[in-house]
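Sequence in, structure out. First:
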Amino acid sequence: MDEKKGKLKNRVKMREQEPSVRAQNFMEVPYGYTPEEAAHEASRCLNCLKPSCREGCPVAVNIPSFIKLIKEGKFVEAAWKIKEDNAMPAVCGRVCPQEIQCESLCVLGKKGEPVAIGNLERFVADYERGIGEIQVPERPKPTGRKVVIIGSGPAGLTCAADLTKAGHKVTLFEALHKPGGVLIYGIPEFRLPKAIVEQEVAYIKKLGVEVVANAVIGNLYSLDELLNELGYDACFIATGAGLPMFLGIPGENLNGVYSANEFLTRANLMKAYLFPEYDTPIKKGKKVAVFGGGNVAIDAARVALRLGAEKVYLIYRRSLDEMPARKAEIHHAREEGIEFMLLTNPLRFIDDGKGSVAAIECIKMELREPDASGRRKPVPIKGSEFRIEINVAIPAIGTRSNPLLTKTAPDLALNDKGYIIADEETGMTSKRGVFAGGDIITGSATVILAMGAGRKAAKAIDEYLKWKHWDTSKLVGWGAE
């Protein structure tokens, strides 16, 4: 094989902190590309006539165009090109699962490694920010229409950016004291630095979006009050799925048992890992068990390790092949010393006699035929029970819709799990003028899928505001008139 083909086959690896070092700090794990590394990686792109990579991007970033600009050394222009479709490239370059989206469709992946699209996106976003050449497009002529967005996570921020660029006045309400949603409270600092999120939000504010924090819609205002008394022409609900799920086993109310939501919110948004410099404390266990196999479980386990745990167990009832977390995050966790206890299921928490957790009793599992999810069903192995000593336990088995907002809107149709029913392509709900997208309609999913939902909803809301009419015939049975 000639030298050119060899270069095309292998991607430029991103340099990282050593596992033994990074396991003791909250600094970002990968260092990012240098300009030389980015140019070299971009040179692998074949500039396909029919680029399939773009089909895998939920927000339809013009991937070939921004990579071509990197090849030409036009790094800032590459960032601007991405921002035509994606207002948060520094976030997406870090946390999007490119390996199962755009990169999975790269032609080079058929015989080697696909172009590192995510790494290149991160590079140009960081480069633009580093040299301070943030370009904010000119504000269009105001349309006179007002839109309210509830929730400042990835779906809400994306929808807000697109609607503002369409000339509408957008107000975004956030329940917590900082905007960003799951980006700011759910994803650890070492995966997504908070300064990055804050700078992406600042850019969206510069576009013209008004952000109001500490505003719990459902308590502060109802949907009807927003649309009628406050005069908003349309509403987009992007509140996510923030209600934690628990294991439902004995002892789950003992001290030392945290939901992953609470544990990560304390550590991320409230910087509990810097207590007492910051006000919010967190229990730093020496032996910690995390339950689940998704990205949130991996994040919680790695945070617990950085808080000083001597032993962190990741307990998952299926095998590594069924684990839904990103492969890169699993790899990082194992490098750092997280002990994966696979084919294991918790049965009950053991009390230390003083109201705190002292151990977890588990049972070994074996996999049988696939269940409704398509993964092989785990079945207990009789007589395989055993105990592990722990003093902190973190269930990370998913979340549900929080009913705080929806219970104030009886005419908003919900499914049997409490999620808002909305049209997949438009985000339109059963309530006139109200749209929804992201985890509040799908359940927990990825950042980029939520952003894609935000973009679709923004387009639909823009059309709705132009014509002030919508065909609700498809929503018969959802409570639409």
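Second:
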Amino acid sequence: MAIVAFDPSRPNFTPYGFTCLRWQASRTPRPDRHNEIELNLLESGSLTYLVGGRRVRLEAGQLHVFWAAMPHQILEQEDAENFLVATIPLTWFLEWRLPEKLMQPLLQGKVLRSGEPEYASEDVQMLSRWIDYMEHSPKVLQQIILLEIQARLLRFALSGPSALPETAAGRGPAANRSELSKAERLACFVAQHCTQKLSAADMGRAVELHPNYAMSVFKNTFGITLNEYLIRQRISHAQRLLVTSNANITDIALSSGFTSISRFNAAFHEVCECSPSQYRRRNRVLD
């Protein structure tokens, strides 16, 4: 089974998409940021993360969930060789409409842990199965995995998850928490409304900031422009429709928030390095 290591040359906020992988548990030279909900599970040992300027410790045997748009970096590992990871694009996650007791703390940047440590061995088996399916099995099984992840997160929400305790990073200046909060709210607003017509004024109004200042705060926090982020959210929405529905590509483009098929095709090729039809053929989960 392949083990993935963090690539420090990876541009900030490049999407991972829907993945199930085994990652190397080692210190990372810089923070990573990507717009997926991330599930982490250690089989042994512990990892200490720096998440949004605060330290949190992940222990083996419990499922952890967080929104990876927050800058996160592994600072320390203790007796952990690798860990199991699943990532789900934020737009897909939001469409599941999971209970607020899960949604709100995640979108506020909290790292949550399962309230069911007695199911640790089952979670290890489940994530290991997802990784094996994603690596070796037909694409149709990916839809089954998504349904299982949705069900697991629903149980996660109902079990009473708790936020991991945070401590100050103890090195360097703390992040500007007020601006970070505005950027998080803005990212969430755009992800929730990406298929609608959105202007800079709409987005600034959502977080009570002047549009120009909102764009500056977002770029400083996430490293990409607000417009780039909006386009990536629309492309993510379109990707899901391409592989899980029979809708024609023009309808998918329009329902994903694009005003023309030409704009959609150009944006899709820039993000995915292939055409929408090629993407559908490669990743189809319907016969």
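Remark: The longest strand covers residues 82-89.
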